[in-house]
Amino acid sequence: MGVTTLQPYPVPENKTGSQTIEFLTKNLTALGAVQAGHFLVDCETYMSSIQQMPPKTVHVLHSSEHPASVFSILDSGAKQIPLVADGLFDLLMLKMTPHYTSKKQTKTESKGPRFELGDFLIKLGSVTMSQSFKGILVEVEYRPCILPASCWELIREFLQGFLGSCVPNTIPSYFTNHNRLNEIYQPLDTVQQYLENFINYRKQTTPAIGMRQ
Q: Inter-axis angle of helices 148-163 and 17-31, to 10 degrees?
């Protein structure tokens, strides 16, 4: 795999999420992109049932790009511990019910069409939390590169040409906060970026005007 970045895309006023995905799809098609199936990334969060300070949270994520893997991130507040396991991890979490409780109301997912355009792989995600539409999240992967610092400028130019002014000039904070700028990119990097964005969407108590699915 290459280097991936995620970019939230604001839903225009008086437009629905579906209309926005359709608009972006037309833009990609005009550039010569070809649809290559669909994708899904989901996240379920478990809270520690045992009284402890600070409280511990386990985020469990799945990606259709890695169907044999389960990604989990243990968050103690001050530190995050990532783990990649197989499908048995889901069964383990069920057995951990006395210790960790699933926050079903915050289950979040991003799903939609995926496109190929030259060396780029683009995914247009409609983000929902408990069936409630939260926003649009665009994933772009530049497949020939494995070091974020080496290809961010190229990815930025592509994103800005495709999405416009909502794309900042600076590299996403994930890469600098986690010292991943000059490290070989891993699937877990994509998962952790999704988690950061999902947490931001969860903080939205109500959708903004125009944010309808």
A: 110
- Whole-angstrom Cα distance, residue 110 to residue 133? 10
Report pLDDT digits (tens) over 112-156.
999 999 999 999 999 999 889 999 999 999 999 999 999 999 999
Q: Which residue has the tokens 């899904």?
A: 40
pTM of this prediction? 0.91
DSSP state of 19: H
The enclosing H or E element of 29 equals: helix 17-31
Round to whole Å and give the CA distance between 23 and 123: 14
pLDDT digits (tens, 9 = 90+) for 79-110: 889 999 998 888 888 887 777 888 878 899 99
Classify domain 3-39+107-203 at the CATH topology level: TATA-Binding Protein (3.30.310)
Measured between alpha carbons, how far is 138 from 24 in angstroms, rounded to an integer? 10
Cis peptide before 8 (omega within 30 of 0): no
| Alpha helix (H) residue ranges in 32-97 | 88-95
Other CB atoms within 10 Å distance of the CB of residue 93: 18
Question: The tokens 């986690």 sit on which residue?
Answer: 178
Domain boundaries, the chain: 3-39+107-203, 41-101
